[in-house]
Amino acid sequence: MAQINPSILSADFARLAEEARAVEGADWLHVDVMDNHFVPNLTIGLPVVESLRKATDTPLDCHLMIEDPDRWAPAYAEAGAGSVTFHAEAAAAPVRLAREIRAKGARASLALRPATPIEPYEDLLPELDMVLIMTVEPGFGGQAFLDIMLPKIRRTRQLIDRHGLALWLQVDGGVSAATIERCAEAGADVFVAGSAVYGAEDPAAAVGALRDRAERAAARATSR
Ligand SMILES: O=C(CO)[C@@H](O)[C@H](O)COP(=O)(O)O
């Protein structure tokens, strides 16, 4: 089943609790943590995650776009994130880190920037609960979806299936009504959407509409 994770990067940060509750039918709330080093933008950190945890029942999917995730990522699991994603390009010891995150009770996920291939990480897949393929350069919401990432999504799905793993495959960046079907057909099953949800008049309805599109596209792809 397709999961839709609204990205609070496109929400009104002055009304975060309200904005989190506006999408309570969503599967997860995607929380973009940026440190102005790994990416050229600065957003939020642990205290906001702790507060969000109390403000909504929707599980938190924290995407750490930070340097030194080996030091910080386990603390996000302790702060209440149900899923913690760290970047392959930033982690010094990704296997140890994934194990630490899981030991704290959260799902462990590995993110890849657009120029980072999945193949070097094939042997690590059993240590993970999700792979995140960035479909824009990380740092900002509202960017155009990179179609050139579709082959990487397909290859990642093939690797996951070949190993018989139950990993989720997430895409993030430029996901909208116009692009979600291509992602689902390529094998993604978790979809982060910022502007397509928070830019909509009715964010909760936008979540439902995106999920319907993704599920129809996935059904078409499997019936081929
Ligand atoms: O991680 C990021 C950006 O780096 C994303 O989560 C964006 O926040 C998604 O926003 P849209 O592209 O959907 O507007």
UniProtKB/TrEMBL annotation:
Residues reported to bind substrate: 7, 63, 139-142, 172-174, 194-195
Root EC class: isomerase
Source taxon at top rank: Bacteria
Residues annotated for a divalent metal cation binding in this entry: 30, 32, 63, 172
GO molecular function, one term: D-ribulose-phosphate 3-epimerase activity
Catalytic machinery residues: 32, 172
Keyword annotations of the record: Carbohydrate metabolism, Isomerase, Metal-binding
Enzyme Commission identifier(s): 5.1.3.1
Cofactors named for this entry: a divalent metal cation; Fe(2+); Mn(2+); Zn(2+)
Reaction catalysed by this enzyme: D-ribulose 5-phosphate = D-xylulose 5-phosphate
Cofactor note: Binds 1 divalent metal cation per subunit.
Role of this protein: Catalyzes the reversible epimerization of D-ribulose 5-phosphate to D-xylulose 5-phosphate.
Family: Belongs to the ribulose-phosphate 3-epimerase family.
Protein name per the record: Ribulose-phosphate 3-epimerase
